[in-house]
Backbone:
């Protein structure tokens, strides 16, 4: 956090405590001098102006109202902060003769509320509700509550590239802004004039805005196209003001206003397009086309690396103008095109959760609230970051490479070390053991390794080359800026799979899955199709970024790490530090999200932190900033799948041949293609398969596991193939799928490779695994039937067809996707657990080797323990996992943690229960309470605690079935879409904890939605830099992006004979079901393409951003007609 932020937070804290006046002294809040900054708190406009006038020449100051703009443009550090929140003149809201007036401090929420009121009640102001309507897409509710319109406009003036929504609205409306100088002189400006004012240099204050009344025949419309629904700045926002004479063929009476933001670094008034419309009839096609052509000439969008393309933004200027015209014309335009006028309006979100009760086994299967939910919601849940600083603790920040493919020549830290507070630099030369942060994880891709710090060559932009440690994080950051790194032999980076495929491939230890004979299958096929599908990666975006604290003690190193695999972190640190494992004590209470990104890549931080602690002999803490997390740590692999498929006239698959290539980053470490090929058959039957997994290396971070790695790719590619086959034969996609379902008793190769690989990571080589497993019943068939009824699919499909016939510019799609998710369980995958009963009160403490990371592991474990011990869940508590009590545990991943820990704890409890039952009998305590029995047993010398480690073959793999139906609506003109409804029917066996499972299913679906639609990663082709390493450029789904209506049902009467307490896992499979949304979008896009005169197969590569969808719909200015 930069220096000045601490001051800002301090001030806010004081205000929150109501201590502002006391601290600031007099009524006026005299200046408060802090170390490097002075805070002023004027309570009148005059005081503010006096304060500004009194500032020394050249001083760096800022006004502070809501203080939210810091998150957009960091600015600072400033020496003078002037808080304006107490100035009554800046909070005015009044109606004057020439307009509605709002003081600069009025929050955006209040401004909107007042505009909605004025639109209803004041003549001449009906139009202002349109402005406020668009501002509903500005930031989010809390931002609008805190941020002022004045701060927004000042930010636009200071940073013209800011795509301010307020600015667009105010220019369009013809608002004026009054500013006041430090001498009290006031000026009134149009918004365009204001952009020319040097607000900061002249120390001018924005006082107020005035919105004029407009005649009823003036049409005002603002539209914002943004990369996701909320909390995103506009790709393009547009404002239109036209005065029309409706009776005269909607003739534009005077010169209209057309303004766009997001096109170039400031804003544009489309004067040529304005001229093309002035005095002309909007009902005349030629006029509209002339305006669109004018835009094509006068709009020259700037290139914005990592953001949307200039082509898309130019196209949006045209389609938004067209939307405006359609809006003005209303019924005067043809009914076919009228759907282009409106934006998508999201109804209030809703959800339904349905699950079988199964009360006979409660508390197993009881719908309980996740144990940590209350403290997570209240913010009381303690994560590593909350561990108080140890005395003398240092903070570390990574020195990272600014080249992606170069030789490291020198690292000069002289200037950095001279900065007060900077204590040292740790680099590769300080490593006493191996410069390799992978321990057991290296066994996945045999022979792989990953350096803690680059030593000879740097292989990606952002690669750690050392750690700078200082007494504060700010000092470390300051030191960072002074480190000089030099490189030579700078080579162009390879950043895409396509480029990497043109170079020699790394050795590939992963064999293909071969079943039958694909050559024979192709020979027997009457149709053969080929295709490729790309899918971008997905960054790890946990709420808790990577963090480790290492405290060197007299018997080793005490480590608090946000790791999904404590034993891996323990071994990796020991290996790097060259100390025995028993000197590394890793403890994990809970993680603020893991999703696979903290299985081994957490060691980037943990090993570097430990090295620093070893060298400095002081406690060291490293927590990555979010953008560093996005730059330094890899996420999910991007993928390329090329396929060839043979099938007969009826659509029965005869042969599937595919090569699945993943981008592993600069080393092949966590390669998921073996999982992808194992999962690819999903619920389908085909006699001949040849599925080849491979990977490429590129100059990007090592990619890593990410919720259902490989599986989601395999399953989605298969669905893509099924869609391709359906299009080729003109068959209904669901009918085609139903024809190819695996029959009951069908044989499947359920991830033998995965089982072997996972076992290797658990330190054990498993041979003699069967080649195939039998799927006793493919539940999918029945599940499809159930969902068709519960989701009313046939009726809704017919409605969708009709909707698509009736509308040119809005399209819908509704599809059903089945899934068989292979749960591949290695025979040996130990989790060691400890169940201790406290003799005095009978309460139970559990410590298990799993990582509770929000997935509800502890809740499931507590339910199983309570059931097996016959006690209430209320008397069970958890002790953080650590490498002493729970040694040699496996990684909490692959949906294995909750299950296996529940199993192991259950087994420990059974042993304990049996022992206590025997004692009860022996002691004649048959009617005694639990508390009485345990105390008596303890007093009698009975051991009332129990360890357990699951042994060979105790848990088994199986298939998880799921069906999803999604319905979408697409705005063809912008590519924006909404998931209207998603129904999911999932087989959770006899769910261990239905509410936890449903939470996982809903969350998993939304994570898949992000992967397949919103989350786009882009590396600069020249420098290799991640261009999407910030919250402004990388877009995960938010609350208003999820399905409007989401209904989750857990399958009834489906006990899993081999599952823990008859259950099935739920955390990963639903991610794959998000592909139902892609299938539905395909239907919507297909309809739009048909309208454009194009039929047949087209590829939909993910992520399907709005831009990509709009382009796939073949929107072209010549098609923007009125008939
Ligand atoms: C998460 C997030 C999402 C956002 N999304 C959007 C979005 O979608 N669309 C959009 O348009 N904006 C968006 N913003 C920007 C947001 O609207 C502005 O940050 C906010 O309106 C600024 O108001 P404030 O009161 O917090 O200003 P502050 O942060 O307090 O001040 C901002 C700047 O304005 C100056 N200033 C403040 N008051 C005055 C005054 N009276 N006279 C002269 N200068 C003054 C300050 O000196 C400072 O430079 C977003 C911001 C965040 C943090």
Residues:
């Amino acid at each position: 956090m930069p220096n000045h932020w601490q001051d800002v937070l301090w001030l806010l804290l004081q205000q929150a405590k109501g201590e502002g006046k006391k601290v600031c002294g007099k009524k006026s809040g005299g200046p408060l001098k802090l170390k490097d900054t002075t805070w002023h708190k004027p309570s009148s406009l005059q005081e503010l102006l006096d304060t500004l006038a009194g500032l020394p020449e050249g001083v760096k100051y800022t006004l502070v109202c809501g203080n939210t703009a810091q998150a957009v443009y960091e600015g600072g550090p400033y020496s003078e902060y002037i808080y304006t929140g107490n100035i009554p003149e800046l909070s005015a809201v009044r109606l004057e003769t020439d307009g509605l007036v709002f003081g600069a401090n009025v929050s955006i929420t209040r401004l909107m509320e007042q505009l909605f009121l004025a639109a209803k009640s004041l003549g001449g102001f009906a139009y202002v509700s349109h402005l406020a309507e668009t501002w509903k897409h500005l930031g989010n509710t809390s931002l609008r509550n805190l941020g002022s319109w004045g701060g927004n406009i000042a930010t636009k003036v200071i940073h013209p590239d800011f795509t301010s929504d307020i600015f667009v609205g105010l220019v369009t409306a013809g608002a004026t802004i009054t500013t006041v100088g430090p001498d009290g002189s006031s000026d009134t400006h149009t918004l365009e004039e204001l952009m020319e004012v040097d607000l900061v240099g002249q120390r001018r204050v924005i006082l107020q805005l005035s919105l004029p009344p407009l005649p009823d025949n003036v049409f005002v419309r603002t539209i914002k196209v943004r990369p996701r629904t909320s909390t995103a700045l506009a790709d393009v926002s547009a404002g239109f003001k036209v005065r029309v004479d409706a009776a005269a063929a909607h003739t534009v009476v005077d010169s209209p206003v057309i303004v766009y933001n997001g096109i170039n670094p400031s804003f544009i008034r489309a004067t040529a397009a304005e001229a093309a419309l002035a005095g002309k009839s909007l009902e005349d096609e030629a006029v509209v086309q002339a305006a669109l052509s004018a835009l094509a000439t006068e709009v020259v969008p700037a290139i914005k690396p990592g953001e949307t393309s200039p082509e898309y933004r130019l196209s949006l200027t045209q389609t938004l103008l067209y939307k405006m015209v359609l809006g003005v014309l209303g019924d005067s335009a043809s009914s076919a095109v009228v759907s282009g006028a409106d934006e998508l309006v999201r109804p209030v979100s809703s959800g339904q959760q349905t699950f079988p009760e199964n009360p006979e086994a409660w508390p197993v299967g009881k719908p309980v609230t996740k144990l940590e939910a209350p403290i997570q919601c209240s913010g009381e849940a303690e994560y590593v970051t909350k561990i108080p600083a140890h005395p003398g603790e240092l903070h570390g920040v990574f020195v990272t490479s600014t080249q992606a493919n170069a030789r490291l020549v020198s690292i000069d830290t002289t200037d950095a070390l001279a900065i007060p507070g900077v204590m040292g630099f740790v680099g590769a030369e300080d490593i006493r053991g191996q410069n390799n942060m992978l321990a057991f994880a290296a066994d996945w891709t045999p022979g792989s390794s990953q350096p803690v710090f680059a030593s000879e060559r740097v292989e990606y932009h952002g690669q750690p080359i050392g750690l700078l440690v200082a007494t504060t994080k700010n000092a470390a950051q300051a030191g960072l800026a002074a480190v000089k790194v030099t490189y030579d032999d700078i080579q162009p980076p390879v950043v895409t799979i396509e480029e990497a495929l043109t170079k020699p491939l790394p050795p590939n230890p992963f064999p293909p899955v071969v079943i039958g004979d694909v050559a024979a299958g192709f020979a027997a096929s009457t149709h053969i199709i080929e295709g490729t599908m790309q899918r971008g990666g997905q960054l790890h975006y946990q709420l808790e970024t990577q963090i480790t604290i290492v405290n060197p003690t007299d018997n080793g190193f005490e480590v608090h790490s946000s790791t999904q695999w404590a034993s891996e972190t323990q071994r990796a640190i020991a290996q790097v530090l060259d100390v025995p494992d028993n000197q590394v004590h890793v403890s994990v209470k809970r993680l603020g999200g893991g999703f696979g990104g903290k299985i081994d890549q957490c060691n980037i931080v943990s090993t570097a932190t430990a090295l620093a602690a070893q060298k400095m002999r002081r406690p060291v803490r490293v927590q990555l900033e979010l953008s560093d997390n996005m730059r330094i740590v890899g996420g999910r692999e991007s993928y390329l799948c090329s396929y060839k498929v043979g099938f007969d006239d009826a659509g029965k698959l005869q042969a599937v041949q595919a090569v699945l290539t993943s981008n592993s980053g600069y080393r092949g470490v966590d390669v998921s293609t073996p999982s992808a090929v194992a999962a690819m058959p999903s619920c389908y039957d085909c006699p001949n398969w040849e599925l080849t997994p491979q990977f490429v290396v590129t100059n990007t971070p090592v990619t890593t596991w990410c919720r259902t790695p490989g599986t989601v790719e395999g399953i989605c590619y298969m669905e893509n193939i099924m869609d391709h086959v359906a299009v080729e034969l003109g068959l209904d996609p669901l009918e085609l799928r139903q024809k190819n379902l695996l029959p009951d008793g069908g044989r499947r190769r359920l991830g033998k490779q995965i089982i072997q690989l996972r076992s290797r990571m658990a330190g054990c080589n498993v041979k003699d695994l069967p080649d195939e497993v039998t799927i006793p019943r493919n539940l999918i068939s029945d599940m499809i039937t159930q969902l068709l009824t519960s989701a009313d699919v046939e009726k809704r499909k017919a409605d969708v067809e009709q909707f698509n016939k009736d509308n040119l510019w809005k399209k819908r799609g509704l599809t059903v996707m089945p899934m068989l998710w292979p749960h591949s369980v290695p025979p040996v995958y130990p989790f060691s657990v400890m169940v201790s009963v406290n003799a005095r009160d009978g309460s139970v403490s559990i410590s298990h080797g799993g990582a509770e990371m929000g997935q509800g592991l502890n809740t499931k474990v507590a339910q199983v323990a309570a059931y097996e011990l016959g006690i209430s869940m209320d008397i069970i508590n958890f002790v953080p996992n650590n490498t002493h009590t729970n040694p040699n545990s496996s990684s909490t991943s692959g949906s294995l943690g909750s299950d296996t820990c529940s199993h192991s704890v259950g087994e420990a409890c059974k042993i304990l229960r049996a022992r206590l039952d025997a004692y009860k009998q022996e002691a004649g305590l048959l009617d005694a309470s639990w508390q009485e029995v345990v105390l008596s047993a303890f007093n009698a010398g009975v051991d009332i605690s129990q360890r357990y480690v699951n042994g060979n073959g105790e848990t088994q793999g199986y298939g998880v079935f799921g069906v999803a139906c999604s319905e979408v609506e697409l705005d063809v003109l912008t590519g924006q879409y909404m998931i209207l409804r998603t129904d999911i029917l999932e087989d959770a066996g006899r769910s261990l904890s239905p509410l936890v499972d449903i939470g996982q299913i809903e969350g998993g679906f939304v994570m898949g939605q992000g992967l397949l639609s919103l989350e786009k990663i882009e590396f600069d082709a020249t420098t290799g830099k991640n261009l999407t390493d910030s919250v402004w450029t990388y877009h995960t789904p938010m609350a208003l992006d999820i399905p409007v209506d989401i209904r989750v049902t857990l399958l009834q009467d489906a006990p899993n004979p081999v599952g823990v307490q008859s259950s099935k896992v739920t955390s990963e499979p639903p991610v794959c079901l998000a592909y139902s949304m892609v299938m539905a979008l395909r239907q919507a896009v297909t309809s739009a393409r048909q309208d454009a005169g194009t039929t047949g197969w087209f590829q939909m590569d993910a992520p399907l951003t709005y831009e990509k969808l709009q382009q796939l719909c073949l929107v072209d200015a010549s098609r923007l007609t009125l008939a």
Confidence is low (pLDDT under 50) at residues 1-27. The chain has 33 helices and 41 strands. The pocket of flavin-adenine dinucleotide is lined by residues 62-72, 84, 90, 104, 108, 138-139, 143, 147-148, 150-152, 154-155, 158, 164-166, 199, 205-206, 231, 233 (CB under 6 Å). The radius of gyration is 32 Å.
